[in-house]
Amino acid sequence: MFTMNTSDTPLTYHRLRPNAPVGLLAKACLELHPRGVTCARCMEACPVEVLFLTEEGMELNEGCLGCGRCMGACPTGAIAVHGFALAPTPDSTHEALTLDCWKVPRDLSPSGAVRVPCLGGLRVSQLLALRYVGGSRRLVLVDRGWCGQCAAGGNDSHPAQAALSATCDWLEEIGAPASHCPTLEKQLLPVSSQRQTISDNTETGDTVSRRNFTSRLAHEVAITAGKVAGFRLGDGGTGKLLRAVNNQAPLRAIERERRLLMLERLAARYGGSLPQSFFPTVIIGPECRDHRRCTGLCPTGALKSYENLHGGGVSFDSAVCVACGQCERICPEHAVQLSTWNVGATSPNETIVLTRHAHRACIDCGETFTTGGYETRCPTCRKSWEMAHVGVDTLFRNIPEDRKRHNTRTNKTNNK
After folding, report:
1. 244 in helix, strand or coil?
2. CB 286 within 8 A of CB 357
3. For 291-345, what is each residue's pLDDT tens digit?
4. Helix H or strand E encompassing 281
5. Would you give the DSSP letter of residue 35?
6. Can you tell me whether residue 366 is helix, strand or coil?
7. Measured between alpha carbons, how far is 16 from 237 in angstroms, rounded to an integer?
8. Which of 203, 247, 276, 301 satisfies CB 3.0 to 4.6 Å to 342 for a cystine?
9. From the centroid of its chain, how far is CA 16?
């Protein structure tokens, strides 16, 4: 298992296969969550196609490279891979904070470089943390020109390009100077220098390196880096992790928490505000009938039901929304609209009320309920009423017309 210190309580990542470097946190996985969100980004990102999502859960076959591409693609931080525990020091002796991959022999990496299995496995939160740790130094990802020949390599673009672009966009929004944007720089080496496998026996293993810092800033940096990236590898697993069935607790989006943490710290440093593009927007139109399926099936709990003396409705917390689109898909009236850009929001990091509906008394049971339309029955009675009508329709759907007329005449005769 992996233990990650993203908060005061360590998180446990269960290894998917004995001796494999990949661990999974089921409660953070959209696919394994019982609220039914479809996400296959990790499987699609695996360059050797050994990671599978099945009806039973997630499965890892033999042949994992340990590249971390699945980890970099996961939107919630449900996957951790050995070798990506980053804890660099705020060393000012180097002009740049450099990242290099394990396929480069250590003696060919720049002095003081942060080495990871594959640059394509880096999360956005890690790049933000490295930007914070690096202070005013340039943050450089080294392109050796090998990705096209590597089994874990990229296609038309470098495998780290998507994470780099997202990081730079947010840094620009919070007011960081252009020189602080992470860059991808070509420092070509002959292909003959490339290691055949993604491994580095000289790395520090699973334990995050902790150094003694004297300054207050350095201590804060060490804590931040540990929260964002630190973990260690433990016991092996069975190769499978089954889907949860009864656990309806909200999914914890670890990666989103890390990104928000780093954006808050960086915004304070640069004197800017949190980027609006980080916070999705949800709008619920007048078609809403207050069924609240969106709140019941929202995986992260970003959409919640509320009740007060005057009525009830739906509230929204954009800070925990992962923009999965579940709310849009399951609304029976198609009243929900999701946007990944928080346009014009003054306080996007706050819970807002989306709908307000008055209380009514159910004509069948008398219980008080809220409604967004002209319903006269509470959700329970309405469901029973709908099921009864469906049953009647099903009963008579396939009866021939002459038989229906016969039944009608018989019923009239019996009623006389």
Report:
1. coil
2. no
3. 899 999 999 999 999 988 878 899 999 999 999 999 999 999 999 999 876 554 4
4. strand 281-284
5. T
6. coil
7. 5
8. 276
9. 19
In contact, 126 and 119? CB cutoff 8 Å: no
The owner of tokens 């007048």 is: 286
Residues 304 and 256: their CA atoms lie apart, in Å, by: 19
Coil, helix or strand at residue 255: helix
* pTM confidence score: 0.79
Sheet-wide strand order for 96-101: 114-116, 96-101, 138-143, 183-186
96-101 and 138-143: which strand pairing?
parallel
pLDDT of residue 347: 54
Instruction: Output phi, psi for 256, to 5 deg.
Output: -65, -40
Q: Can you tell me whether residue 347 is helix, strand or coil?
A: coil
Question: What are the pLDDT digits (tens) for 374-398?
Answer: 778 887 888 888 888 776 565 555 5
Q: Which two tokens stand for residue 349?
A: 């990091």
- β 79-81/22-24 pair status: antiparallel
Residue 40 CA to residue 56 CA, distance in Å, equals 14
